[in-house]
Specification:
- With 313 residues, the protein is an all-alpha fold.
- It has a domain at 94-312.
- The protein has 14 helices and no strands.
- The protein has helices at residues 3-8, 10-25, 28-65, 81-91, 102-119, 137-145, 148-158, 162-193, 198-203, 214-227, 239-242, 252-277, 288-301, 307-312.
- Helix 5 packs antiparallel against helix 7, helix 5 runs parallel beside helix 12 (252-277) and helix 8 runs antiparallel to helix 10 (214-227).
- The longest helix has 38 residues, at 28-65.
């Protein structure tokens, strides 16, 4: 295998090397479990790194929109500002309301973030570079991502705060409302591909499905933006009405986990659009995984940051 072939198939080759090494030192079942753990860690690191980049890009962009400089003190052009924000969140005091349901209060940000992370398991970076190639991949994504609505309601209920509860109920209503057009827009791509497998959908696109389903792609993008509570559809906070939304009683990294989940969900939605409508990793000259990133990153950056995130950091 020459160098270019190795670069093109970088992730499948790395996976094969790691899998072969694990089988040489561990029993099959232990190697299988450890391979899954490594995959989860890689996905988590990838999501966190992309979120850090998105935060910096969005805050610099919003600064331009508002005729100000944006972060420009910590590192060149403020490039290390997101790292400073993360350190600040870890060092903040974790304030828990005295009358709240402490178990539900603690679990809510986990329930919001983890389903999004689970959905990345079926996102194919390229042929052979996927954690779990399920034959019902897109159905799996729809199923697990709907769990975030439960986390939002848990945050409002467990906080023992009527404003948080009202905001969480509004959040669940918004998620349920926009889930219908999201699923309907997915059905068009699935019917054209004739499969629910994410890799199968990409392989079926001799031409990107956006050429045949432009309205479906647009509906999915708009409905997902609303479902994610992203501007200009960030109605769940509604600061003038209900203070700061369902997460009003959260602080420190619990608060940060809500918005890590929100940014991660934006990346997930962008990756799904790239997979369903833009041909996934397909493209000339460049390695497949670079094409996938090129198609995904601009979409993830096309929605602005949550308003209260920009105000609070």
């Amino acid at each position: 295998m020459n160098v270019w072939d190795y670069i093109v198939n970088l992730f499948p080759n790395l996976g094969s090397l790691i899998w072969g090494w694990l089988l040489s030192v561990l029993p099959w079942w232990a190697a299988y479990l450890l391979m899954g753990v490594i995959g989860v860690i890689v996905i988590l690191l990838f999501v966190v790194m992309v979120v850090i980049v998105l935060i910096w890009v969005e805050r610099r962009g919003v600064g331009r929109f508002q005729i100000r400089l944006g972060p420009n003190r910590v590192g060149p052009q403020g490039i290390f500002q997101p790292l400073a924000d993360v350190i600040k969140l870890f060092l903040k005091e974790d304030v828990v309301p005295a009358l709240c349901d402490k178990r539900v209060h603690w679990l809510a940000p986990v329930v919001v973030f983890v389903p999004t992370l689970l959905a990345f398991a079926v996102i194919p970076l390229q042929e052979g570079a996927i954690l779990a190639d399920l034959n019902i991949g897109i159905l799996y994504i729809v199923a697990v991502t709907t769990l975030t609505g439960i986390g939002i309601f848990m945050a409002g209920w467990g906080s023992s705060n009527k404003y948080a509860l009202i905001a969480s109920m509004r959040g669940v209503a918004q998620v349920v409302s926009y889930e219908i057009p999201v699923v309907l827009s997915i059905i068009g791509a699935v019917m054209m591909a004739g499969t629910l497998s994410m890799i199968g959908i990409v392989n079926a696109q001799y031409l990107p499905f956006i050429l045949f389903q432009p309205l479906g792609c647009l509906i999915y993008f708009i409905a997902s933006t609303a479902e994610l509570n992203r501007s200009p559809m960030d109605l769940l906070e509604a600061e003038s009405e209900i203070v700061a939304g369902y997460n009003i009683e959260y602080s420190s990294m619990k608060w940060g986990l809500f918005f890590l989940g929100e940014f991660a969900a934006a990346i997930l939605v962008s990756a799904i659009i790239a997979t369903l409508f833009l041909g996934g990793w397909q493209g000339p000259l460049l390695p497949p995984y670079l094409w996938f990133i090129i198609k995904t990153f601009p979409l993830a950056n096309s929605t602005s940051a949550p308003s209260d995130f920009k105000a609070s950091i």
